[in-house]
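Thread: quick sanity check before group meeting

JM: Hey all, I'm pulling together slides for Thursday and realized we never actually wrote out the predicted structure for the chain we discussed last week. Dropping the sequence here so it's in one place. If anyone has concerns about the input, flag it before I start.
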Amino acid sequence: MSTYIEDKTFRELQDSEVLPAPSGVRLNIMQMCQQEDISLPELVSQVQGDPVLAGRLIQIANIPNINKGRMVAAVNVELLLMVGLHAVRQMALAISLTESARRGDCKEFDYDAFWARSTAMACAGQALAEMLQQAPPAEMFTNGLLAGIGRLGLASARPKRYGELLLDHPTGEVLLEREQAAFGFDHLALAAAMMEDWHFPRLFCNAVLYHERPSASGVEEGDRQQQLVRMLELAGALADVCVATAAARPALLSRLLTLAAAFDLPLSSVEYLCGRVSWDWSDWGALLHIPTQVLPDIGQELAEAAGASN
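JM (edit): ok, ran it. Output follows.
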């Protein structure tokens, strides 16, 4: 039963078999991670057969605040327990969707641009989780990657109607309002419903639901739920900087600094995050053939944006 969309509507979308969904070995890995009597050696064998998933898990396991011992160089039981089976399952889902749902019938939907921003937001979510230590990095990577999955879901399930809706490139609240009027739900509600159906914790489903409009959550700013919402909002702002043209970047940097201030992040930390996310995003894009760009040294641009806002 869906918490976020009228249940009958969501089941109709599912029954049409057009919503993005995992498949193959990664679906098998996801199912294994849910088993109470899971065989960890068998799971290790499955993950070892997936170089992209294995490489990403090794990278996450070697994050300093996760791995406080020797560096991990291979997938083994110790690595899976260190990262966590929930994170393994979510990462398998995320990679499966990234590789499979790359094209579709909605001509007005830019699939390459969608995945470029989604992967940038995933890298930003992971980097923020490492820095702020308020959520597991692997899970924040996945949440960032799936935060916009409702848009892909609408493009897949309702390509003609959604294409008409996108003709004049609406964004923000305008896009959400048009989606609500056309379908009875917006892409954020669909994303949360899809994640709920994939057994993501309610905490993360709600974070995705409200990350584009945090004030609508009704949750106190000091609450962990709202902190996750704000982290995803900040990850989205970082992603916007990554995908932006040079001309569009100054305004986006100003917004980024405003959001970062809520976490007491100094200018130096924001500059580090921009560089770190840019390089991670480039590496991830090379693995999955997603268009990316490496940001130039934007320290001066950040300083100018900070000066203009004072």
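AS: nice. The radius of gyration is 19 Å. The first helix runs from residue 7 to 15.
JM: adding both to the slides.
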